[in-house]
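Duplicate of #3305? Posting structure anyway:
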């Protein structure tokens, strides 16, 4: 199998949720109290609901994919057209793969997040050869999730972000003072290259963590 280290960056959908989709705190019952809450907090709550779409595959958008094949250089593709971005990414991976080997995907929190986003879009945009490379079985060996390996079944309460684990292991760290929650802000400012830089560093970090864990699981 060919190892492909990968990370994606996502943002909310193009339009804010409707005002009718915003709900006040559940303990509020009186109409006047609810009206006051909406007047004071409605738009903020709407913005917060919008930002959460960056974690929802059916509502958000992929704006950047970072990847590296084996020990090759990290590459990133980013842009405003999600479909075109997916085609560029997959075309490049197939080129590096020699259009042959099956792929082992390696990343952090990969199984439940990145792989689902990629599979859903592979189906949506007709990239069937990509879709079949993304396993749908729960514990398929062709997905190596650093977070799962690190925490293991021995400690269901284990914590640790990718950056925290990198610090612990002495691995390469991601951009200081930067995390996925700030990607949308960069997008709104048109700073797509900074998103690409951050995503690429994420891939470099996860590859270094994998190399340190390799042979222990």
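Output from current build:
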């Amino acid at each position: 199998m060919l190892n492909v280290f990968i990370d994606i960056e996502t943002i909310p959908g193009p339009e804010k949720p409707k005002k009718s989709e915003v709900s006040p705190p559940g303990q509020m019952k009186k109409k006047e109290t609810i009206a006051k809450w909406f007047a004071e907090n409605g738009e903020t709550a709407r913005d917060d609901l919008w930002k959460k779409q960056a974690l929802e595959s059916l509502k958000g958008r992929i704006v950047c994919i970072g990847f590296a094949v084996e020990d090759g250089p990290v590459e990133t593709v980013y842009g405003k057209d999600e479909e075109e971005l997916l085609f560029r990414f997959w075309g490049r991976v197939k080129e590096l793969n020699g259009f042959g080997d099956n792929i082992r995907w390696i990343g952090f929190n990969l199984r439940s997040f990145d792989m689902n986003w990629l599979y859903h879009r592979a189906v949506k945009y007709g990239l069937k050869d990509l879709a079949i490379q993304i396993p749908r079985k729960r514990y398929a060996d062709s997905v190596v999730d650093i977070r799962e390996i690190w925490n293991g079944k021995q400690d269901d309460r284990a914590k640790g972000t990718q950056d925290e684990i990198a610090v612990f292991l002495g691995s390469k760290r991601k951009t200081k003072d930067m995390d996925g929650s700030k990607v949308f802000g960069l997008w709104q400012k048109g700073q797509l290259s900074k998103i690409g830089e951050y995503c690429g560093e994420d891939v470099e970090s996860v590859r270094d963590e994998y190399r340190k864990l390799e042979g222990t699981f």
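Confirmed duplicate; merging threads. Strands lie at 2-11, 61-69, 75-78, 103-107, 143-145. DSSP finds eight helices and five strands in the chain.
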